[in-house]
Predict the structure.
Amino acid sequence: MGYVAVTAGEELIERAADLFESQRIGDSEDVDVDQIRDQFGRLTAQAMGEGGLYAPRLAALAVKQAQGDAVEAAFLLRAYRSTLERFDESVTVEPSEMIASRRVSPAFKDVPGGQILGATKDYTQRLLDFDLVDGDPTDPTEDWDVEDAGEPERLTNVTELLREEGLLHEPTAPDVEEPNDTTRESVTHPPERDEVLQELARGETGAVTALGYSALRGYGQVHPTLAEVRVGDLPVRIEHPYTGDDVTVAHTRVTESEAVVPVYEKREDPQFAFGYGLTFGRNERKAIGMTILDASIQLDGEAEPAEDAEFVLDTVDGMDAFGFIEHLKLPHYVTFQSILDRIRAIRERQGLREDGRVDDEQPAEPAVAGASDDD
Amino acid sequence: MVDPYDRSDRFELIAACEGGTLARFANDVLADDPPLSVRQEPRPQLVMQQVREPVERRPFNLGEVLVTPAEVELDGARGFAMLPGKRERAALSGAIVDAAVAGDHEATPDIVAALEAVADSERDQRRRAWAESKHTAVDFQTMEGEE
């Protein structure tokens, strides 16, 4: 496929961009970036997760600039990060260090540490709340008489319970000191698991959800039980340049999901395999989808899309998909002219008239061997 | 118990401090025009957050976190700070505050008091958030035998 530069005049391009800005401004009051950060947390979380950059205020700015297009906002964040230096890698943290604000276990009713619903409307009806039209600034938790529960507890990981009982398949511990960074080195196939997790963590939410769903719909073998889903804050630690101590510079809000997958029919020792999901921000749908895909990819199948690492990793990245799909609307005049010329030439050779009928004087060869008028 | 006189503890408290508070103390410290050199300009940078996956125990890169580090030398004492996000002014102020406490500047008692207040506020917020979460803890009851 060939490309060619076209020219249309800078002024016209600026005019179109101005019109885009004008539509964002509209007739209503300007939305403050902090309002977007605070009130559209799911959207900014999606942009941060897919952008692979944790920066809540800039994510809000990106969402504002992109007029609410989460993938475009993620693109803006990735473009911004590409201009920055890397200070360092963080000290590796354990997910168990998370200060959880929500944790539910669909697998165990009486999970140690308890089921903490946290902030959710999962158990309510999905009905439009017309009170929000005029705004309702009243905080419904204002009158809560909350007892001091002390310092946040570290909640026991559900997979730890299975491991203690020997029910969890223990993979051979990988000899990995430094994971490959897929933002710096492209993934080669078959990928290492750390590459799979990084790519899924910044995968596009809809794509991760859809491919994970495909496994549940029968295009795969993984139908997991979720051991738990958590939302909470993970510390970001660096080594202090003067003291050498591990120090916390920030916390990232993350969503974590773990799934167990029964593999007793396939192994001599009946145990659970597992899948893992972790992504920036509150995005349970994506974390669960990631969990299913992680478990599916470990099966290393070729027949099912979700089990094919190359297929999954080549399609879940929002920037790649966004770029390739949306570039189709850019000028392809030379390419299309070439196709037109080719088709016209073939038709001419076959004696086809403009109305599609065969010229009476020249009997036509079928365009495709064996094709008939009925095709 | 966090100690603002301890360099590592102070780093964490400065990272959690309001930018306006840091700027106010930095201005106080610089009021007498002490010798100051900026060893590292405050510029947004990235820290790649690495997490250890809990079953295979394999580390992987979750994603990058935006931070702004800065480093100064103030009257012979070095100071380093890193603030989350794109916050150049706050990071430079934080490095000056760190150096001021390291060099026992006369503003140190006020700075330490402010940083202790940050520690208290952080602890209160953490405990409040945890208490609210625990307020939603539920015992699911199975409904076997019920129609």
